[in-house]
Structure formats: structure tokens, C-alpha cells
Amino acid sequence: MGMAAAMVSPRLFAQEKAGEALASMTGGVMPIGKAERADRLTRAQKAMQAAGIDALIVEPGASLIYYSGVRWWRSERLTALVIPASGAPMIVCPFFERPSIEESLGIPAEVRVWQEHESPYAPIADFLTSKGLNKGRIGIEETVRYFAVDGLKAAMPSATWVKDPVTRAIRMRKTAAEIALMQKAADVTMAAYRWTYPQVKAGMVPADIGALMSAATVQLGGKVEFNLILLGEAAAYPHGSGKPQAVRAGEVVLMDCGCTVEDYQSDISRTWVHGASPTTQQRRVWADVAQGQKIAFAAAKLGAAAGSVDDAVRGYYQSQGYGPGYALPGLSHRTGHGIGMEGHEPVNLVHGEATRLDVGMCFSNEPGLYLPGTMGVRMEDCFHMTAQGAAWFSKPPASIEEPIG
Question: Which CATH number fits the domain that encloses residue 272?
């Protein structure tokens, strides 16, 4: 086989190779069911009543799926969920979309429609007025678009419009069912790493490696969310470089990959040195990042401020000559982010974040070290808070010689 054929084969045959070696891990997965969604609505409505919020407005996205099960997209045609502080919710959508909306609706809810020439805000105003809430305090989920808020204000000028204080708080604390799905997503990603790692060869480019990882993820039963492959110097830049990259002996390979299982995500990074013994510098930086992960995990105690986890890592890194703060060489981004139905969710492990760690919160732990012009190392594993403290979704690797774990 010629070199050109060898170079493209990972992309051409990755799925076939994965199919021969891997079986799905997600056949017995339990998706979020009606009882879980009903409990979410109950918790949300109790929180709304406590906060003096009369209704919530939610556009398509993760929060719409969270509450209703409806998987929809955002366009100029408004579709929205209205959750009153008591009673059944209502969904408004274009008339011609009603059958599709009802097909995935996972909660008891009224569906109201608007025709193409009509205002989409009128059905919402009519619904809230019928409940005596046209002068109430209406919460706006934080990702709702400006034009929708503007239209709602015009349709209900006597209402008071406030930022939704409820959705973030309840989504932040995952239930056992959600944790189980995130665990399965992490298991799929780790299995995909274990299959992909020995197939990485000198000369491969990021798309070759990404094709292998994607094929494995799909065959294992996950839905590919992202594959970021950084080679050599490109690993010094957390989200990569536009320069040509290829695997070379003695240089760093950094993979940052994630999938979803029934809407819940994984996010795991691994770094190793390809085809040669690591240099003293490579070994030291890898070991420092591994220690950074351990420090972050140990600092993640129930009741601790989320920002204190970042501070603990940065204090150690500065003692090793990195930084200070975000200065390079060092850790130029936060130690971690919240994760769940979205890859990045509140709350973050970042300096100054005062939110206290609580049972059910989930985070990435990724205190990478970056040396511009030379290399970067990032190991990333996610954890969740239990009544006994932090627990890993995936366990960090033990050594640079065994970099997957």
C-alpha cells in the first residue's frame, strides 16, 4: 500500500474497523421518563412560588428538553414553553408544527398555535391573562432571545419581566437518573479512547484521528458531540491552531473528546507523547497537570466555594513556576466548567465564583498547562458531588506511559 492510501485509510475505513471490534454499550440505557419530568416541573413550580415568580418562558434548547422532552430548534418562528407557578404548562408553536411538537411532548401540556400572519405572542398573553397573570412577575430563561422578550413585553405591557432564578438552580443539581446517563456517556468516551489510542500512527492528521474516535463512539452507542485533536505545538493553544498538523515521534498528541447519551454529555481529554520516551520537560509538565487534577479533586468539598477549587490549583502551579494567575506558561483558562445536558453549564470552577458545591453538581476537572511555541498538556475528567464528596465519572490516567487510564 502506498503512503497516500495509508494516510487516508483511517477516514475511509474507520467505521468498518470499529464495527468489527466494538459493540454498543447503551442498549439498556433508561432515558429520562415522564415521572422524572413531572418531578422537575414540581420542583420548578415550588421554587417559582418561593421566589415570587408567576410564570417562566423557555425557548427551544436544553432547558426546553429538560422540562418538556420537546427537541426543537430556534428560528424566526417562535416556539416557547410557558410554565405557570401552578397548573399545567402551555407550549406555543406555529400551526403547521403542532403535530411534530406533540409527538415528542413528554409532559401534560396545552398546545396553542399561531398562523403565519399572526403574532406568536398573543397566545402567550391570552394564556397568562386567563390565569390572572398579565400583571404578574414573569421569569425569562436566560438564553431566550431579545426579539422574543421584546415581543412579549409589547403584548403584556403590565407584566414585570425578570431573569429566571429557577431553571439554572434546578438543572445544576443532577438527579440519580441524570448522573447515570452522564456516567454512561463517560464510559462510552473512555472505551472509544481505548480503541483509538493504539491506532494513532505517525503522519496522521487531526481528521484521521477524529474519524477513528468518532467511529468508535458511534459504534459504542454514543452520539458524537466533538473531537478536538491538537498535535505538537498546537497543543499549546487550548482550542488549537489553524496551522497544518501531523503526528510526529517525540511530540505531544492531545485529544479532547465528548459524546452524548440521551442528551447528557461527557468531556474527557488525554495527552501523550507519540512514539518516543518523553523528554524531561514533557514528563514534568504532564506530572504537574496530573497533580493539578488531584489538587482540584481534593479541594472539591461540599460547601466549598466553586472558585476555591481554581484557587487551589493556581496556588500549586505558581509554586512550580507557572503563571502567576492566567499568565503563560501556565493555566490560561478556568480549572473546570459545569456540565450536563450542555457541555458548558453553570457553575464554573473559576476564581471568584462564590456558589457553594452541593450534591448533584457536575464539573470538568481540566487544569491544563500551556507553553506557547512548544507544547501543552491537558488531562480532563469530570466528577459529580455526592453526599460523601466528589466522585469521578472517569478516572485520570496514572502515568504518561499509560496515558488513557
Answer: 3.90.230.10
Q: Which of 218, 212, 207 is nearest to 197 (CA)?
A: 212
Residue 267 located in a structural domain: yes
Can you tell me the distance from the alpha carbon of 357 to that of 128, in angstroms, rounded to the nearest whole number?
36
State the pTM of this model. Answer: 0.94
Residue 17: the pLDDT is: 83
Q: At how many degrees (to 10) do helices 3-21 and 206-219 cross? A: 20
> Which of 172, 196, 227 is the last residue in one of the domains?
172
- Residues (pLDDT < 70) of the chain are 1-12
Strand order in the sheet with 381-386: 345-349, 336-338, 362-365, 381-386, 389-392
232-258 pLDDT, tens digit per residue, is: 999 999 998 888 999 999 999 999 999
pLDDT of res. 9: 52
Single-letter amino acid code for the residue at 273 = V
